[in-house]
Amino acid sequence: MPDPANVRAPSAIPVDDAILPFEVSALDVRGRLTKLGPALDEILTKHDYPAPVGKVLGEAIVLTTLLGSSLKFDGRFILQTQTDGPVSLIVVDFMAPDRLRAYARFDASRLNGPQTTAELLGRGHLAMTIDQGANMSRYQGLVALDGANFEDAAHEYFLRSEQIPTRVRIAVGEEFRSAGGPKHRWRGGGMLLQFLPKAPERARQADLHPGDAPEGTETHTVPDDDAWVEGQSLVGTIEDVELIDPDLSGERLLFRLFHERGVRVFDHQPVGAQCSCSRDAVASMLASFSPEDRASMVENDKVVVTCEFCSSVYQFSPEEAGVE
What we know:
Structural class: alpha+beta
Helix content: 25-40%
Number of strands: 14
Order of helices and strands: EEHHEEEHEEHEEHHHEEEHHEE
Oligomer: single chain
């Protein structure tokens, strides 16, 4: 039970575009909760994505926020999918500690009514890359996407790469308000919960299937720790509307879930939509092309480059672009 001296009422004030770290010591679990409002809406509306594409990209942004916010250095966490589905490419870039940008490529002719995230993504792979900066090696984990959504992919990633018992919940939705005329905006939310007991043997997981075991070989199993069973069960009760409700604070949601066990929250970590592109950066990119390639970019006596992330447009004269 929590120390009464450290107990306070959960804040009723919702905080958007932030990550709320928390801990339930009685269950040996830690996690992060995020609620995204204006930042998510800015990223999605800049491209005017069709609703199905906006939703699936929003889910990728929520997952990236949950994972990227764990970086303890000023690096980057990049989530990228390449698949054969209607949404063939997604890139989400989290620049620690607080900057997000993202975009998606899709085939509008293949958007056919209600489609699940798994149907929109199709088959392919999801890559999660940690870039520690110049002169530092990159770390990348790959997860196959074969009829899976982002929650499934995250669970597979932690099972195979991190081997930390992990549960993820993600929700994205559109909010419509009629006051003062129709108003549409995107909202998203997510929670990541991990089982981190002091005794490592309590977090043991079953061995991964080797792929070449003889037929009839008994599958290795390890029963889940009771504390982790409880933690997963509680997270499983979260409804999508609770994660995206603009009037429900993250603290109140955590209190709903874990008040019997006692939950400790830490300071919010703000995040925002901010692209890293600039005129100088685009000029440097142009300089990396061959003279022939630069010359082929000239149209109407100018070179125009549009940032895929934020849709900013940069114009250069042929001379500025280094075209002879």
